[in-house]
């Protein structure tokens, strides 16, 4: 026999369960909207810009006339910038990570460095731009050169590389090191022959993600004065340059619709490059996890 | 091995160690140089403009006559962008995190997580383009009075931009709550809603709060989207439909022009950057401190 009290309880239970179901679908809907936003963003860009991306677009210099404009100098500038940045930042970052994980004594200095790297990773990119402007462009007299841009970018992505490489190195089991030490290897021999090869997939993934950040960064380059109109290709690290994000910014900032479509075309190329790099990182991670 | 070559190996080892140390120490040098440059130029700036005028002045017109150097309009502009994070990124990010950690199957996770990573990896200049060509026309569709450059549009895309970071940090925080707590609550007859809102979220609250602080710091330092979408009008307003200027957008505006080193305008760059750097640094330190200090440690 059901009493009045039981009825009330079951009604309350039903309410609570309805609330739970509603909440679940609410969370699903909200998460779905985040995915939807990505969809809208990509659709918007591709539908705006796909008509412009062709061979002529890739091989022309920027121009006042939209139909003649292209991204050659921006694309080549980005290649220069990323190569030099990689050259500077990868060795420094990986060696720093090796020091912190394999050599550093547990003391105040090490802690200072660790905390400092974590904080640098959170400094707004435009502040690195200010540093580049004051230190490389003005004080060291490098002007608006590719090398000044690459040095600025290197400092910006160093914390990212160090943190990723540290994690990869930390994941290597200690037994590996102990076995090598037991056979009489020195610390460097242990690192070079055992730790680094084992940590390589993780380190490479981190490096690729850091470099894709360097490809997309705009603000520091504007700070150090990367030009918006460049109708030549840099031939040495001391030459002036422009880069893809700068070109996109420049086209987006113009009022005319047509230049917005050019910007969308530039974005398609930029996102294409980033997507390729990400796919490479995923592939390396996948292969690394298999072995 | 002879004694000599063993010695030379040790010698090489200690040189290597020193080289590695220098690489790691470079980060400390970077910070020191940043702080040195910012403080030096800011001090020179304060020889011409008083600290009180800079911090409490309500007009920012360093590029126009009569010149005025009160940073409050830039701070107000930046604050409007932060509102977008509070209204958009925080609720959606937490809801995403709840879905990911409490409801999602492994398959759903394997779709949502990479999607969020892609959103996080899109360059900020692309978000600026999106704000200008999609979000702004959308807002003007509903509220025709809205200016072409407006704070709302920039705030919305900055909210979208930091959403993945909030979602992923909150997800970490919620997943760190041990399963036994959930099981305990379920066994007492709680529904999934009650378990989430009364057990899991309170237990992960410090992580959620830390995520929020770090997201605000990201929004303050965000540059390209606000430069493109929010305009270049230092404006002491709380109306998100007006054109404003953030601290970062001002820095970009000045660097796009040709400003001679040593001029007062050049020094304003550093004064504004000092405020920007100090604010984000304090927020970052505060955020990581909360994460460490209040993390519940479960046995």
Distance between the termini of chain A: 65 Å
CATH class of chain B: Mainly Alpha
User: Structural class, from helix and strand content of chain A?
Assistant: mainly alpha
Helix coverage percent of residues of chain B? over 70%
CATH class of the largest domain in chain A: Mainly Alpha
Count of discrete domains of chain B: 1
**Subunit arrangement of the protein:** heterodimer
Architecture of chain B in CATH? Orthogonal Bundle
Runs of chain A in which pLDDT lies below 50 for 5 or more consecutive residues are none
Cα-atom radius of gyration of chain A: 26 Å
Q: Which geometry of chain B do the CA atoms define?
A: globular
Taken in chain order, the helices and strands of chain B follow as HHHHHHHHHHHH
Structure explained in plain terms:
The complex is a heterodimer of chains A (291) and B (299). Chain A is mainly alpha-helical and 291 residues long. Chain A has two domains: 4-52; 57-290, MetI-like fold. Chain A is built from eleven helices and no strands. Chain A has helices at 4-49, 55-59, 72-103, 108-120, 125-139, 146-170, 174-182, 187-216, 219-223, 244-252, 257-290. The longest helix of chain A has 46 residues, at 4-49. Chain A is flat and about 90 Å long. The mean pLDDT of chain A is 90. Chain B is mainly alpha-helical. Chain B has a single domain (72-293), classed as MetI-like (MetI-like fold, Orthogonal Bundle). Chain B has helices at residues 3-48, 51-56, 72-103, 106-121, 124-142, 151-175, 179-187, 192-203, 205-221, 224-229, 247-256, 264-293. Chain B is globular. At the A-B interface, helix 1, helix 3, helix 4, helix 5 and helix 6 of A face helix 1, helix 3, helix 4, helix 5 and helix 6 of B.
């Amino acid at each position: 026999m059901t009493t009045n009290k039981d009825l009330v309880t079951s009604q309350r239970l039903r309410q609570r369960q309805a609330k739970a179901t509603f909440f679940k679908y609410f969370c699903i809907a909200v998460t779905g909207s985040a995915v939807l936003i990505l969809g809208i963003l990509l659709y918007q860009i591709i539908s705006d810009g796909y008509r412009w991306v062709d061979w002529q677009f890739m091989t022309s210099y920027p121009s006042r006339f939209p139909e003649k404009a292209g991204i050659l100098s921006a694309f080549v500038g980005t290649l220069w910038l990323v190569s030099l940045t990689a050259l500077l930042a990868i060795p420094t970052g990986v060696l720093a990570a090796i020091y912190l994980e394999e050599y550093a004594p547990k003391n105040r200095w090490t802690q200072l460095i660790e905390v400092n790297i974590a904080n640098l990773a959170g400094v707004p990119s435009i502040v690195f731009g200010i540093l580049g402007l004051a230190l490389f462009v003005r004080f060291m007299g490098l002007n608006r050169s590719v090398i000044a841009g690459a040095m600025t970018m290197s400092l910006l992505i160093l914390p990212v590389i160090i943190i990723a490489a540290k994690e990869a190195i930390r994941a290597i089991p200690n037994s590996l090191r102990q076995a090598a030490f037991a056979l009489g290897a020195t610390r460097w021999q242990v690192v070079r022959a055992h730790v680094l090869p084992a940590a390589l997939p993780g380190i490479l993934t981190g490096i690729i993600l850091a470099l894709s950040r360097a490809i997309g960064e705009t603000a520091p380059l504007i700070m150090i004065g990367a030009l918006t109109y460049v109708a030549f290709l840099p031939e040495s690290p001391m030459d002036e340059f422009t880069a893809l994000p700068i070109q996109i910014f420049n086209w987006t900032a113009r009022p005319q619709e047509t230049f917005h479509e050019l910007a969308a075309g530039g974005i398609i190329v930029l996102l294409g490059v980033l997507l390729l790099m990400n796919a490479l990182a995923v592939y390396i991670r996948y292969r690394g996890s298999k072995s | 091995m002879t004694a000599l070559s063993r010695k030379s190996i040790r010698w090489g080892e200690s040189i290597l160690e020193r080289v590695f140390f220098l690489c790691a120490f470079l980060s400390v040098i970077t910070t020191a140089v940043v702080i040195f440059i910012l403080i030096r130029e800011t001090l020179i700036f304060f020889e011409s403009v008083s600290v009180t005028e800079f911090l409490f002045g309500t007009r920012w017109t360093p590029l126009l006559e009569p010149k005025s150097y009160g940073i409050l309009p830039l701070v107000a502009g930046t604050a409007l962008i932060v509102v977008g994070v509070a209204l958009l990124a925080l609720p959606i990010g937490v809801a995403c995190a709840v879905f990911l950690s409490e409801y999602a199957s492994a398959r759903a996770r394997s779709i949502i997580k990479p999607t969020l990573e892609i959103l996080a990896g899109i360059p900020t200049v692309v978000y600026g383009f999106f704000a200008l060509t999609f979000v702004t026309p959308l807002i003007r569709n509903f509220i025709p009075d809205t200016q072409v450059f407006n704070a709302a549009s920039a705030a919305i895309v900055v909210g979208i931009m930091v959403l993945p970071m909030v979602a992923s940090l909150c997800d970490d925080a919620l997943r760190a709550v041990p399963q036994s707590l959930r099981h305990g609550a379920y066994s007492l007859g709680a529904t999934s809603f009650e378990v989430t809102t009364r057990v899991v979220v309170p237990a992960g609250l410090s992580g959620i709060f830390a995520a929020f602080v770090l997201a605000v710091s990201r929004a303050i330092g965000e540059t390209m989207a606000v430069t493109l979408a929010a305009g270049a009008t230092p404006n002491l307003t709380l109306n998100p439909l007006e054109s404003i200027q953030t601290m970062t957008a001002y820095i970009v505006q000045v660097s796009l022009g040709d400003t001679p080193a040593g001029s007062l305008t050049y020094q304003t760059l550093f004064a504004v950057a000092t405020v920007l750097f100090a604010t984000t640094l304090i927020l970052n330190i505060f955020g990581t401190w909360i994460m460490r200090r209040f993390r519940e440690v479960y046995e």
